[in-house]
Specification:
Elements (H helix, E strand, L loop, with lengths): L4 H5 L2 H20 L9 E3 L1 H11 L28 E3 L14 H34 L2
Antiparallel strand pairs: 1-2
Helix pairs in contact: 2-4
Length: 136
Amino acid sequence: MPVSFDKVFGVHDDALLLFERRNQLLSENIANADTPGYKARDIDFDQVLQNAQNSGSQRMSGAQLKTTHQGHINLQQQPFTGDIQYRQVEQSSADGNTVDTQKEKAAFAENAVRYQTTLSFLTRKISGLKRAFKGE
């Protein structure tokens, strides 16, 4: 009987990629906290998940772009590029920077916990599959 890994892992493998991309964005925001005119960016996880469920798609990737030259960047390696939004801020600084370091650090910590939880869940799923394949 063939095993469908999409069914076994559900949305957890996509969620892991999404949390990874969000950590990258949040760390970029923190790193650019003192850059004049920098606009904080983020991904709304709930909105991305809802869009994926509504469209019936199995993968939660953004736009499907075709590379026509060897030097083009393959956006398929950078998931969720179409789901990045500028963060809504209460008040930007005088230099136009919209990064609130306290909120960014809190969001980063929360996202890191979600990433670890999803990773632990997937690790347990894989361990269970390995035991099932071995017949234990």
